[in-house]
Structures are given as structure tokens and as C-alpha cells.
Write a structure and sequence with these properties.
heterodimer, A: alpha+beta, Butyryl-Coa Dehydrogenase, subunit A, domain 1, Butyryl-CoA Dehydrogenase, subunit A, domain 2, 4-stranded antiparallel sheet, 11 helices, 52% helix, B: alpha+beta, 3 domains, 4-stranded mixed sheet, 41% helix, binds flavin-adenine dinucleotide
């Protein structure tokens, strides 16, 4: 038997969690998130600066030698749990996890240089693929000619906040500054208002080659993204459960708290159990990624296959159990529902991850 | 008037007298009401002929085949047609029936439902909007919420508390409220789809004539039961062709977009298709039972299945869309004229369907009703039945 992964939270991780949570409690409450979601500036740049630069959280996955914190996926996962709990509109998953991990997979001086910029929070990066792309999915490439890139990618998460895009073209990976000539980033209308999407159009845009073989680096980035997205989903589910439990203790109908009806107690107890399982799956993925275990691909897909539906279920239950108020724009539960539903498509659906799991554990489809 | 052939003959005579091709739509519908072909099971003179309800389908088929203008549908006046009308028919005075039913059916007057309050949703009988008698009028003050379509409505069905000293079910009276009266204020309440289909309605010393009371003073809860029963049938009970409901759009997408297909989605889609088709057959069977004169208890369950399937199917549809499922068509706040569960795109359908298990009684409450009234299981111990409304905990 292989040694089991460490599924607990360390003391440092707990401290990190409380630091992030107290910041978000102050700066990212539901009213602020909702107001921002509909504004012209859907990303919270100030909050990002505090998280990324002041607290150094953008560089958790980056070795100190490259200007990062030299921490691991375990700590990044804790940050994501909290960001999920607040549906925070910051490009953490996209820049500090997916783009960062993709660059780590390049192992070239050009990529290393960019890692320093991302790790310090000076720059925001985004992998220019549709957010729905999973680690084993095929994707369309951009056309490349003499280092000039032409083409279009849609549903790119956080592209509107990004300074640099990682673009797959002609088999290679290129860095494209969003400020360059020939780059147009157009906001799309997202289902999840807290993770803005954009269409990226490149018209002979200048690209810096990061690696001639993008494939392995991109898969690595998407896999880490999928594995850690599970922690965001866990945080989101946990918020939905906690909030609903609290509401049902105080909401009275029929001369008693609604939470005293056994039918609802059982529903919430079931949901609690789901979050217990989700936590084990998410921790397992974070640990496997942190230790670069052979099991990492399985752990990441296992976590996605399990946590995706749990987050959606938690948000759907939260809405239903709030009754009419859950259907209103002013109550935050819809932000969580929309995030959960978009997360279920992001980085491969649960079904796509079940297929990966099946392949890896030799349970082939008929 | 219980014979299908007789109704076909009447409908044909009517069509001959009012050829759809040369009759203006409104005039045609007015004539149709007056000929008793609007809702054949209503009494003569009130849009019907006292025929069995099931025979409406015969009339509708004839009219449709002749290219008749369609009647105003439930998407515009669902509360009027599905809830207010049957309640007025059952409890209204002759004068009320004459005054309200014709313009209601014609869609000239839209109705809304002033039932739920911030503190009284599932426990509707706990409502606190007060109605106090003042000569020939009632003075009504309180707040209602989630009022669908109040912004388009001319009239509302309203329940209010007329005696706070009685236990909650006994101190309620049912009224028709004129939404244009002074003291009625409608504020949009935006919902998760981005639209404001429903509203908050503030009633401040609204004067409702006693002539607009439906049923006896203090009997409002009984009257409201008729409304609620009809609401549940109206929400889940539409007659549909195969793939006529929520399953239609996803089936179409599946057929048109082979690149979206996966084995996993396929299994789930077919499973839901089977459930949707079986639900449709259950509805059909229910209608046949009605025609045969023995309505079954299955009706209570139809809205439950409708809501669950609408949510599961639209949820799968968003997933099937993949990258496009990450997008939404439009978050702009607007106040729609109609209610349409299938309208717009997958993301809208998914979000709107969330309301289906809340509006018209939540699924949890409906399950309790099935358990207690259909299965005869004992109810949970209740502490609220015999205390005066004013002494209830909130
Ligand atoms: C889209 C939409 C349109 C609507 N339109 C109208 C309208 O036009 N007019 C109108 O009057 N109202 C309307 N409503 C209001 C609707 O009828 C109420 O929201 C509904 O009855 C639930 O009440 P509530 O919101 O107060 O939830 P609550 O009653 O507070 O319920 C909260 C949760 O507790 C559960 N619960 C409550 N009691 C029990 C129990 N005994 N056992 C188990 N679980 C229980 C509920 O199922 C729910 O999940 C609308 C609602 C929606 C969402």
C-alpha cells in the first residue's frame, strides 16, 4: 500500500486561511461582490493587489529562486477554498494557478522570467483557452507565422484583467501582452458574474515563444487547475451549507423554526456529508499535486468528478431552502449558484473527469 | 350539452357566423365568449355551456383547424385564467362573475395574486395584512411579496386578516383588489434571471368595497384553497405533445449539434427523456380519469414532477452546451409582460426553473400534502392551530 496522502490542514494552512478570510470578510462581502459584478470593472483590482502582492499569495506555487513563495498546492488550495466561500472576483485560479503552473511546465528562461512577474503580482496571466477546456480535452490552436499570431478564442476566464495571455499556436506556447497592437479582448456576458469571460482576438499580434512544445505544459496547467478548482467548489459548498443552516434556524413558519422540520434537517445533514467527502477529495488532490505524486492525475480528476456536482447541489439546495428570497437578485445565493454551475463546466465536466478516472483505474467503457 | 358531436356542430355554426378570415381577432374572441365556447364547462352566459370540461379540447381543435385567432394564453394572464377565474366562479356573486370573467378571459384585464408576505410563505395562513371594516368598505394595509405580474395587473386576488383574535385559519377574508386604487404601490423585485417578473406590493389604507369580497367574512382560507389547488394544476398540468416541455430544446440541441455529444450526457439525456415522456403520459391519464368522472389524487403530484424535471433537464442542457453554457444572453433588468418558462436560452431556463419548486407552494410543502392527504399519514404535531393569530411566534 502506498503511504496515504496528508488530508489534514497544517497549522500554517489554518493561519493562512484565517488571514485570507478576515481580509475577504472586510473587503469582499456579498453586497460588494454583487455591486461589482454589474459594474464596468467586474474584477476587484485592489483586492487582487492585496492578495497577490501584499500577502504574496500569487507566488505560492513558484519556487523562491524564481521570485515566488516556494509553497505548494496545499496552501493555494486553502486560498481557493476561501475565495470560493466569498465568490471573490479575483483572477487567482486563472493567473496564480493555471497560468503559473503552465509556465512552470515550460521550464525555459522566457517562462521563468514571466513566472517572476506573475508571482509578485506585478502581472496577471491567463491561459488563452476556453474555460471549459479540461486536461484531456482537445483544443483549437491559433495560427502562427513568423512569431505573429492570428485567431480567436472565446470564453477565456479573466482575460479582461490579464496583462499577458499564454497562447497555444503552431504547437508552441507564446506570451502575448494584452496591450500589444493586434490584441483585442472583448468582454462576453457570463453566467457566472464573478468570473468574467472574454473573447480574445489576435490579428498578427506579436508573441514571445515560451516553449516549442506547448502540450505537456498546458496539460499540466489544466490538471492543476482542475485539481485545485475542487477546493474552490468545497469552499463554495461550505458557504451554502453554513448559510442555509443559519437561515433555517431563524426563519419561522408554522409557529416554529423551519429548520426544525425533519425533512429539512435530513436534507442538510446529507449535504453536510457531501461536504465531508468533498473535503477529503479536494485535500487529496491538493496533496497529490503538492508532492508531484504519480497519483496526481487520478487525484485531480477524482476531486473534480466528485466536487463539481456537490457544489451545484449545495447551491441548488441553498436556493430552494431559502424559498422565495433565494430567487431574488439581492440575496447572494444566486452568485453561488451561477459560480457552481459554471465551475461544473470549467476545466472539464464531472463526466469528462469520470472518463479520465475510468481510464486511469482500468475501468474501460464498453 | 355533454356530447362531443353537438359541440362540434355548435362550433362550426359559430365559425360560419364569424369567419376567422374576415373577423377582427378581438371581435372574434368576444363573440366566442358570448357563444359559450371560451371555457365550455362554465355556465351559460359566462363564457361556457355547462358542458364537461374535457370537451373544451374538441372545441379548441375545431377552432384551430379553422385558423381562429388564439385566446389569450396563460403566459399573459396565467393567474387570471388559472386561479382567479375558477375562484370567482366557485365563490363569486352573480354580479362579480358578470363583472370580472369576460374581460379576464379576453385578456383585457390582467390579474395577479396578493397572497405571500415576507413572514408568510409556506405558512400562508399566518399572513398579517389587515383589513378593517369601514361602512361599506374595507381598509387594507400590509405588505405582499413575490407578486408575479403585479406591474401589468388591473386586479388582484387578495387575502387579508380580518380577525387577529381568532386562530390563523379562521380570521382571513378573500377580496378582489383594484390595482389602480390609491394606496397600492408596486415595486419591482429583481430575480436571479436578471428580470423583475415579480414585485413587492405595499398596501396603504387601500379602500376595497365590500362588494369585492369573495366568500364570507372569515372564510378566506377556504376560498384560498380553491385558488391554490388550481394554481398547482395550472403550473404542472398543461397538456403537451411529446417533447413539448423542457425536454424539447435539449432534444433539439442534441440532434443538431453532434459535436456536443458524449456518452455520459447521452445516458443522462435519455434517462430524463424517459421521465419526461412518462410524466406527460401521467398527465394524460389524469385527464382521462377526469373525463371518466373519477379524478385521482395524482394531480397533487404533478407539479412536483414538473418542477424536478424542469430543473434537471435545464441543468443538463447548460452542461451540454459546454463552452456556451458558461455564457448568459442578457442580465438587463426588465419587467416582462409575460411569464415564459421556456423562453430565451438554456441559462435562463435553468435559472427560471429554480422558481418552479417554490412558486405556488414549495415542493417540500407539496410532499407534505401528498403524504398527509393522499397517503393519510399523520401530520406532525402542530402548535399553531388553536392559538389566536396575534399570539403566534414569528
Ligand atoms: C418565481 C416566483 C413567483 C411567485 N409568485 C407569487 C405570486 O404571484 N403571488 C404570491 O402570493 N406568491 C408568489 N410567490 C411566493 C411563493 O408562493 C412563496 O415563495 C412560497 O410559498 C414559499 O414561501 P417562502 O418564500 O416564504 O419560503 P418559506 O416558507 O420560508 O420556506 C423556506 C423553506 O422551508 C421549507 N418549508 C417550509 N415549511 C416546511 C414544512 N412544513 N416542511 C418542510 N419544509 C418546509 C420550504 O419548502 C422552503 O424550502 C412566488 C415565488 C416565486 C419563487
Amino acid at each position: 500500500m502506498t503511504t496515504p496522502s496528508d488530508l489534514l490542514y497544517s497549522e500554517t494552512e489554518d493561519e493562512l486561511r484565517s488571514a485570507v478570510r478576515s481580509l475577504l470578510t472586510d473587503r469582499c462581502d456579498a453586497t460588494q461582490v454583487l455591486a461589482r459584478a454589474e459594474s464596468d470593472a467586474p474584477h476587484d483590482g485592489d483586492l487582487w493587489k492585496t492578495l497577490a502582492a501584499d500577502m504574496g499569495l500569487a507566488g505560492l506555487l513558484v519556487p523562491e529562486s524564481l521570485g515566488g513563495q516556494g509553497a505548494t498546492h496545499r496552501e493555494a488550495a486553502v486560498v481557493l477554498e476561501e475565495l470560493g466561500r466569498f465568490v471573490a472576483p479575483v483572477p487567482y485560479l486563472t493567473s496564480a494557478v493555471i497560468a503559473t503552473e503552465t509556465l512552470l511546465g515550460c521550464g525555459t528562461p522566457a517562462a521563468d522570467e514571466l513566472l517572476g512577474a506573475l508571482a509578485s503580482g506585478r502581472s496577471i496571466g491567463a491561459l488563452a483557452l476556453p474555460l471549459s477546456t479540461g486536461p484531456s480535452a482537445s483544443y483549437a490552436e491559433i495560427e502562427e507565422k513568423d512569431g505573429r499570431l492570428t485567431g480567436r478564442v472565446t470564453a477565456v476566464a479573466d482575460a479582461a484583467a490579464a496583462d499577458v495571455l499564454l497562447v497555444v499556436a503552431g504547437g508552441g506556447l507564446y506570451a502575448v501582452e494584452t496591450a500589444s497592437d493586434g490584441v483585442t479582448v472583448t468582454a462576453q456576458t457570463p453566467l457566472d458574474l464573478t468570473r468574467p469571460l472574454a473573447a480574445v482576438t489576435l490579428d498578427s499580434a506579436p508573441g514571445r515563444l515560451l516553449t516549442a512544445d506547448a502540450s505537456a505544459a498546458v496539460r499540466r496547467g489544466l490538471r492543476a487547475g482542475a485539481g485545485l478548482l475542487a477546493s474552490e467548489q468545497l469552499g463554495l459548498a461550505d458557504w451554502c451549507l453554513t448559510e442555509t443552516v443559519a437561515y433555517l434556524k431563524t426563519r419561522h413558519q408554522f409557529n416554529r423554526p423551519v429548520g426544525s422540520f425533519q425533512a429539512l434537517k435530513h436534507r442538510l445533514a446529507e449535504l453536510w456529508l457531501e461536504t465531508v467527502h468533498a473535503r477529503a477529495a479536494a485535500r487529496n488532490a491538493a496533496d497529490a499535486l503538492a508532492t508531484a505524486s504519480d497519483e496526481a492525475p487520478l487525484a485531480a480528476s477524482l476531486a473534480q468528478a466528485y466536487c463539481s456536482p456537490v457544489a451545484v447541489h449545495a447551491a441548488e439546495e441553498a436556493l430552494q431552502l431559502h424559498g422565495g428570497i433565494g430567487m431574488t437578485w439581492e440575496h447572494p445565493v444566486h452568485l453561488y449558484l451561477k459560480r457552481a454551475k459554471a465551475d461544473a463546466i470549467a476545466l472539464g465536466s464531472a463526466g469528462a473527469h469520470r472518463e479520465i478516472v475510468a481510464e486511469l483505474v482500468d475501468l474501460r467503457a464498453p | 350539452m355533454s356530447d362531443a358531436a353537438e359541440l362540434v356542430r355548435r362550433t362550426q355554426e359559430f365559425l360560419a357566423a364569424h369567419p376567422p378570415a374576415s373577423t377582427a381577432a378581438e371581435a372574434f374572441l368576444e363573440a366566442r365568449f358570448d357563444a359559450g365556447l371560451a371555457w365550455v364547462h362554465y355556465p351559460e352566459g359566462l363564457g361556457g355551456l355547462g358542458a364537461p370540461r374535457a370537451l373544451q379540447a374538441v372545441v379548441d381543435a375545431e377552432l384551430e383547424a379553422a385558423g381562429a385567432p388564439p385566446a389569450v394564453g396563460p403566459s399573459l394572464n396565467g393567474i387570471g385564467l388559472g386561479m382567479a377565474a375558477p375562484t370567482i366562479l366557485a365563490f363569486g356573486t352573480e354580479e362579480q362573475k358578470r363583472r370580472f370573467l369576460r374581460p379576464l378571459w379576453l385578456g383585457q384585464e390582467i390579474w395577479c395574486q396578493l397572497f405571500s408576505e415576507p413572514g408568510a410563505g409556506s405558512d400562508l395562513a399566518a399572513l398579517g395584512t389587515r383589513a378593517v371594516r369601514d361602512g361599506e368598505d374595507w381598509i387594507v394595509t400590509g405588505q405582499k411579496v413575490w407578486t408575479s405580474g403585479a406591474h401589468n395587473a388591473r386586479f388582484a386576488i387578495l387575502i387579508a386578516r380580518t380577525d387577529p383574535d381568532l386562530p390563523k385559519h379562521r380570521g382571513i377574508t378573500y377580496f378582489v383588489c383594484d390595482m389602480t386604487d390609491p394606496g397600492v404601490e408596486v415595486r419591482p423585485l429583481r430575480q436571479i434571471t436578471g428580470e423583475a417578473e415579480f414585485n413587492e406590493v405595499f398596501l396603504t389604507e387601500v379602500r376595497i368595497p365590500d362588494a369585492h369580497r369573495l366568500g364570507e367574512v372569515g372564510e378566506g382560507w377556504k376560498v384560498a384553497q380553491t385558488t391554490l389547488m388550481n394554481e398547482r394544476v395550472a403550473i404542472g398540468g398543461a397538456r403537451l405533445p411529446r417533447e413539448g416541455g423542457m425536454i424539447g430544446p435539449i432534444a433539439a440541441t442534441w440532434r443538431e449539434r453532434p459535436e456536443l455529444r458524449t456518452r455520459d450526457l447521452h445516458q443522462r439525456l435519455v434517462e430524463l427523456w424517459v421521465e419526461a415522456e412518462v410524466a406527460r403520459l401521467t398527465g394524460e391519464r389524469l385527464r382521462q380519469q377526469l373525463v371518466a368522472g373519477h379524478p385521482g389524487p395524482e394531480g397533487s403530484g404533478m407539479k412536483l414532477t414538473f418542477a424536478r424535471l424542469a430543473q434537471q433537464i435545464s441543468g443538463l442542457e447548460v452542461e451540454l452546451q459546454g463552452e456556451e453554457g458558461l455564457l448568459y444572453d442578457d442580465w438587463t433588468m426588465r419587467r416582462p409582460e409575460t411569464v415564459d418558462f421556456l423562453g430565451r436560452e438554456a441559462g435562463y431556463r435553468y435559472l427560471r426553473a429554480k422558481g418552479n419548486s417554490i412558486e405556488g407552494g414549495t415542493s417540500e410543502v407539496l410532499l407534505n400534502i401528498v403524504a398527509e392527504r393522499v397517503l393519510g399519514l399523520p401530520s406532525e404535531p402542530r402548535t399553531d392551530k388553536d392559538i389566536a393569530w396575534k399570539d403566534l411566534s414569528r
